[in-house]
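Researcher: Next entry in the queue.
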Amino acid sequence: MPSSKITITGSYENDSYAIGNAINNLADGKVAEIKEITLDPYKSSTVFNDTRCSSSSLVHLAPSTANSAALTGVYVITTNGSFEVFYSQSSETDLKFKYIIFN
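Model: Structure for this entry, 103 residues:
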């Protein structure tokens, strides 16, 4: 059975500030969590609210369907508390992407 322990090694093992910051980030949900979104059909952008997002975040998208993989012109603009995905208009309703936010 896999272990659920977190091991801190190297220069951080005695750094109480770094350890506290890591624990606070876990408590605030600021960890690498993969979620899924669906883009609005017949539009050229969709806004998604996510409190983990900031203007300096990087949002990585991975297509979950063949139609989303075929979509062109996909890019993301981030702001504090949300991000907007821009894309070429499509009438497909299964434009699903998995995403992860890097801060």
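Model: The two ends are 31 Å apart (CA to CA).
Researcher: Noted, moving on.
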